[in-house]
Design goal:
357 residues, 4-stranded antiparallel β-sheet, 49% strand
């Protein structure tokens, strides 16, 4: 597995130039700021709004660069806007890989947000880049054209395509396997899970209803959300077996899922047709070893949740909130549920992204 550590240098405001000093702390110095410990925030933006954005969050201050599309780090570094509908971002081998479904492209950036090369454009009929996974050597990108695109992380070069199912979305890598959520034909609810052994190319398929974007690895196993049909088939969390190509229900529904150590954290903000609105649930913690479930944060704190992300180094929980037509916010809670900070984000945040290690 290829891995290189480096300092991350970002602007304090949109008028400053990036500089590099790996020995400095998180302090201002002649207009520059060096951020040695933090994560990125990726914001999807509005449909056809061309207002996707990337921010950087400083862990020490729990502050983020502006979520406004005109002042995100990509715009600062490249003099243009990021594009339409950012779906996902991976931070691996000193690079940022960003998928934009509306703009039908993959951007590859350095850690300051500067383009390393021209974007990879997807021009095939039905193409829409979605979610990503990595093993450290390669980045795997799902695309609505029915393929997973493979890129080398060192050179960011395209390597090959892997055919999967219809409208692939969520993806995980584990122990030489890819697990891909194929959401199926639109409104048909005929989704599948593809399990692909990379060394041989052999694949297995599991029939489900509507496996969508969420796929995570927890305690050496893959967990996904099947979103159901949003009416009389509820969502359900499943554990996927790589060896025999089967899945097992955990017995509870979820709309967002994240993981830390041997625990799944999930919330189920479901649409209620009688109330004509979403009903919030608490954030739950589910121990995958013991099967014990506990309420972690109250339903009130989970209202309007649009994303759920966890810092793999310390368990800090980043909760993104979104409401129609307005810039969102993000709150951070420690693993013992204490409040750590809040900051503004962009439109419909897809969540925090942490360095692959």
């Amino acid at each position: 597995m290829k891995k290189r550590l480096s300092g991350l240098l970002l602007l304090a405001t949109i008028t400053f130039i990036v500089s590099c000093d790996s020995d400095s702390d998180n302090t201002f110095n002649g207009g520059y700021v060096t951020l040695n410990s933090g994560c990125y925030i990726v914001n999807t933006g509005n449909w056809e709004g061309n207002d996707a954005s990337i921010q950087y969050c400083d862990f020490e201050k729990m502050l983020a660069t502006s979520g406004d599309a005109e002042s995100n780090i990509f715009a600062v570094q490249n003099g243009t806007l990021l594009g339409d509908l950012a779906q996902d971002m991976l931070w691996v081998n000193d690079k940022l890989f960003v998928t934009l479904s509306g703009s039908q492209k993959l951007e590859v950036l350095d850690e300051t947000g500067k383009r390393l090369r021209a974007p990879h454009m997807y021009t095939q009929e039905g193409a829409s880049p979605r979610m990503m996974a990595t093993d450290g050597d390669y980045v795997y990108v799902t695309n609505y054209d029915g393929n997973v695109y493979v890129y080398d992380t060192d050179r960011a070069d395209f390597v090959k395509k892997i055919a999967v199912g219809t409208r692939p979305e969520g993806i995980s890598y584990l122990d030489g396997y890819l697990v891909v959520n194929n959401s199926g034909d639109l409104y048909a609810y005929n989704g599948t899970i593809s399990i692909i052994e990379l060394a041989t190319g052999n694949s297995k398929s599991i029939e489900l209803v509507n496996p969508y974007t969420t796929s995570v690895v927890c305690n050496g196993e893959v967990y996904i959300i099947d979103s159901g049909n949003y009416y009389d088939i509820p969502s359900m969390v499943y554990r996927i077996s790589l060896q025999d190509g089967t899945c097992a229900s955990l017995g509870f529904a979820a709309s967002a899922l994240a993981t830390y150590e041997n625990t799944l954290y999930y919330v189920n903000n479901a649409w209620d047709y009688e109330l004509n609105g979403y009903v919030s649930s608490p954030l739950y913690a589910y121990d995958v070893v013991t099967g014990e479930k506990t309420e972690f944060l109250s339903a009130e704190k989970m209202k309007n949740v649009n994303s759920l992300s966890i810092n793999p180094d310390n368990g800090d929980i980043f909760v993104g909130y979104a409401e129609y037509g307005v810039l969102g916010t993000m709150e951070v809670f420690s693993i013992n549920t204490s409040f750590k900070g809040v900051f503004d984000v962009g439109y419909y945040t897809a969540g925090a992204r942490f360095e692959y290690k």
